[in-house]
């Protein structure tokens, strides 16, 4: 089935949480004929909005908890929600009024394995009682489950995003230290994004130890994500085939090396318990034949980005060079919106785009022309950044790889209009992506 969807993180909603604006966005998706909502990681983070540095692959990010929904349950007062902006303070107040019931007991019993580890770690880190973190996660999961059920009832599937590595300061490293190599850190070598590579600084896995345990750790974290999402995107699939490790203490990723991974054994173990239809793999960046082989051999759904299609002659990312089992993006969270991309595009790339479209385009018209290319492609899935639908420029960029500050801040001021919903629905019908 051909599908279309929108990439918009929870943090980019007007309220930046799981409250009323999240439900209103689901309504917009339905009205626009969209059947996919892709988000970025919703895990608890090391700091603020560092979505790809989770402190737990199981705990949810407390920043996404909606105070309005807590108020509707009688755990917060209207004046508190309006005047107190610190979400931790609001959660403390709600916790002080919370009386556990059967639903809480069921949640605790079902999740106690990871929940105990998380609550122990966080209570020591923040010097407060463990029960406070049981409550936090109960509330997060309750709000998330209700939102997901609402989206599914409207015909919308939610696509999640699973980071490759946890933060160095994380529950995983705290409780499963033997599964990591802590004298080196993660990253990727120099590429078009960064001449010195990207030094992520997270621990890398000890795949020898993982293999001895039957890859239980990876299987469990992916299974858990599929309780939260209809589909999970495995970030940095390159790292499941070979990973770039850099000696700890280096200032850049240049002095790293590739280390092989037991990919065949891992994927065969994983696919015995996880349907491949529920996995997408992020196979962008520097790839070797091993990555292509395993993605194709195991029929995993890969990714392509239109913004990469005009950097070279007959690029593999051009619509006519793509395959059906693929997700085609205008751009991802790591790319500029189309309007800003077009402005910075080299003259030769701009000419390739114009020839491919068969018409001249401007900064104002390029976004929807490119959306049309993505929609008309043979790819089963088409995903458009919300910034592109709104025809926004470079200031709306979500993340710039290699840039240490100023990322992840963009969000909607208001939800999209009915006119935009209708325009997108028309595209969805014309190109056979209507649910």
UniProtKB/TrEMBL annotation:
SUPFAM superfamilies: (Trans)glycosidases. Pfam families: Glyco_hydro_77. Its EC number is 2.4.1.25. One of its GO terms (molecular function) is 4-alpha-glucanotransferase activity. It catalyses: Transfers a segment of a (1->4)-alpha-D-glucan to a new position in an acceptor, which may be glucose or a (1->4)-alpha-D-glucan. It comes from the Bacteria. Belongs to the disproportionating enzyme family. This is 4-alpha-glucanotransferase.
């Amino acid at each position: 089935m051909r599908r279309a969807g929108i990439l918009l993180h929870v943090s980019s909603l007007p309220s930046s949480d799981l409250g009323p604006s999240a439900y209103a966005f689901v309504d917009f998706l339905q009205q626009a004929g969209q059947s996919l909502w892709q988000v970025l990681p919703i895990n608890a983070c090391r700091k603020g909005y560092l979505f790809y540095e989770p402190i737990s692959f199981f705990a949810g990010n407390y920043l996404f908890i909606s105070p309005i929904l807590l108020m509707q349950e009688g755990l917060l007062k209207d004046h508190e929600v309006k005047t107190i902006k610190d979400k931790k303070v609001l959660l403390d107040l709600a916790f002080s009024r919370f009386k556990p019931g059967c639903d809480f007991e069921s949640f605790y019993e079902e999740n106690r394995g990871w929940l105990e580890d998380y609550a122990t770690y966080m209570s020591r880190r923040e010097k407060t009682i463990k029960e406070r973190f049981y409550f936090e996660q109960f509330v997060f999961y309750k709000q998330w489950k209700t939102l997901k059920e609402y989206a599914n009832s409207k015909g919308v599937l939610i696509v999640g995003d699973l980071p490759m590595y946890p933060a160095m300061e994380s529950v995983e490293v705290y409780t499963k230290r033997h599964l990591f190599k802590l004298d080196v850190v993660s990253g990727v070598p120099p590429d078009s994004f960064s001449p010195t590579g990207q030094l992520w600084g997270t621990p890398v896995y000890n795949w020898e130890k993982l293999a001895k345990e039957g890859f239980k750790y990876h299987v469990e974290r992916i299974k858990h994500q599929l309780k939260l999402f209809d589909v999970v995107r495995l970030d940095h699939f390159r790292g499941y085939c070979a990973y770039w490790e850099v000696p700890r203490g280096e200032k850049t990723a240049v002095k790293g090396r590739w280390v092989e991974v037991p990919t065949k054994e891992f994927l065969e173990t994983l696919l015995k318990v996880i349907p491949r239809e529920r996995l997408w793999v992020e196979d962008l960046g520097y790839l070797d034949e091993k990555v292509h082989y395993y993605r194709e051999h195991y029929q995993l759904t890969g990714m392509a980005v239109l913004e990469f299609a005009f950097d070279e002659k007959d690029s593999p990312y051009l619509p006519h060079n793509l395959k059906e089992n693929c997700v085609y993006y205008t751009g991802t969270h790591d790319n500029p919106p189309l309007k800003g991309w077009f402005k910075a595009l080299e003259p030769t790339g701009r000419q390739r785009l114009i020839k491919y479209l068969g018409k001249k385009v401007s900064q104002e018209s390029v976004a929807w022309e490119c959306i049309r290319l993505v929609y008309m492609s043979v790819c089963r899935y088409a995903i458009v950044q919300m910034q592109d639908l709104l025809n926004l420029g470079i200031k709306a960029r979500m993340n710039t790889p290699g840039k240490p500050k100023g990322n992840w801040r963009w969000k909607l001021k208001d939800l999209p209009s009915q006119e935009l919903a209708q325009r997108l629905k028309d595209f969805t019908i014309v190109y056979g992506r209507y649910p």
